[in-house]
């Protein structure tokens, strides 16, 4: 999938999870941080490619990207696997409380927002022809549906004309159906 499709899918996933599991005691900085964190999570698995947008925001990011590309050696390997997701989770679980001031931003909500973004990325990539190597280092790709020929071709017309708009249509439909819960989350912001 293309970056903008991953971004939209992560945002829709974050809204969906928030409606079913409303965060307790969220403030405005945490809400904004959660949206940004989900977007970062949506792009994080593709850090194994030198063209990832996240490399552009890091100092000397393109140089670091070229160096790390040699470690990953191929796109959709460790960062698209269960072991890679677990490693990222453990790293962020350790690092976020050290870098975020818990008085202003809830590190747990940020952690789960990143993980929602990563999960949405891997799920959406599983819909593509290539699938994802969930059991890396085993090279068996997993995809939905199991028949590769009927999966989405990344960057082609179907993704642009059907998938991307469908995500936004879903989001509008979902927000409309869960508007009271979502408005309750926004109302709770003003009480902080």
Describe the protein.
The N and C termini lie far apart (38 Å). The relative contact order is 0.18. Helix 1 (3-20) crosses helix 6 (107-126), helix 1 (3-20) runs parallel beside helix 7 (157-177) and helix 5 packs antiparallel against helix 6. The longest helix has 21 residues, at 157-177. This protein has 192 residues and is an all-alpha fold. The model has no long low-confidence stretch (mean pLDDT 89). The protein has one domain. It has helices spanning 3-20, 28-43, 53-57, 61-72, 82-99, 107-126, 157-177, 179-189.
User: How much strand content do the residues show?
Assistant: under 5%
- Provide the gyration radius in Å: 17 Å
Helix proportion = 55-70%
The count of strands amounts to 0
Write down the overall geometry: globular
Order of helices and strands: HHHHHHHH
Mean pLDDT: 89
Question: For the report, how would you describe the main beta sheet?
Answer: none
Number of domains: 1
Computed structural class: mainly alpha
Q: How far apart lie the N and C ends?
A: 38 Å
Q: How many helices does DSSP assign?
A: 8
Low-confidence stretches: none
């Amino acid at each position: 999938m293309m970056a903008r499709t991953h971004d939209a899918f992560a945002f829709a996933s974050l809204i969906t999870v928030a409606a079913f599991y409303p965060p307790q005691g969220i403030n405005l900085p945490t809400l904004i941080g959660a949206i940004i964190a989900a977007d970062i999570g949506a792009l994080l698995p593709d850090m194994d490619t030198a063209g990832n947008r996240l490399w552009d925001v890091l100092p000397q990011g393109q140089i670091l990207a070229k160096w790390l590309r040699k470690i990953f050696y191929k796109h959709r390997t460790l960062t698209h696997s269960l072991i890679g997701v677990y490693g990222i989770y453990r790293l962020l679980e350790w690092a976020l409380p050290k870098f975020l001031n818990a008085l202003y931003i809830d590190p747990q909500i940020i952690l789960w927002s990143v993980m929602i973004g990563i999960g949405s990325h891997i799920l959406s990539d599983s819909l593509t022809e290539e699938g994802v190597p969930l059991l890396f280092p085993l090279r068996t790709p997993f995809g939905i549906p199991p028949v590769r020929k009927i999966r989405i071709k990344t960057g082609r017309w179907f993704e642009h004309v059907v998938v991307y708009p469908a995500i936004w249509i879903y989001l509008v439909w979902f927000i409309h159906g869960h508007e009271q819960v979502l408005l309750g989350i926004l109302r709770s912001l003003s009480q902080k």
